[in-house]
Amino acid sequence: MILVNTDYITGKELEMLGLVKGSTIQSKNIGRDITQGFKTLVGGELKAYNEMMNEARAIATKRMVAEAEELKADAVVNIRYASAAIMQGAAEVIAYGTAVKFK
């Protein structure tokens, strides 16, 4: 499966199959949430949240690819990511793009 953030793949003629997406909502445990809260007092990278968001993007991408595979797609083009805070310490990440088949 080819995944790109452009709306084309060089040298390929594409047939659009439709929108595909994958999402997840992730949170850290309360202990991590408290320690990251203290980190905001002194500044710096919030590593636990960074790891959480990386994991969430990977899960959302995997789910998007699974949806594309159900459509028998060869690739997903124009991939985008969006995220939103759901509550303190929890975030939703969605990955979406257009499933395509090579002509």
UniProtKB/TrEMBL annotation:
Do you know which InterPro entries this protein is assigned to? UPF0145_dom_sf (IPR035439), UPF0145_YbjQ-like (IPR002765)
What organism is the protein native to?
A: Papillibacter cinnamivorans DSM 12816
Taxonomic lineage is: Bacteria, Bacillati, Bacillota, Clostridia, Eubacteriales
Q: Which domain of life is it from?
A: Bacteria
Q: Which family does it belong to?
A: Belongs to the UPF0145 family.
Pfam families, from UniProt?
YbjQ_1
The entry's protein name is UPF0145 protein SAMN02745168_1210
First and last residue of the signal peptide: none
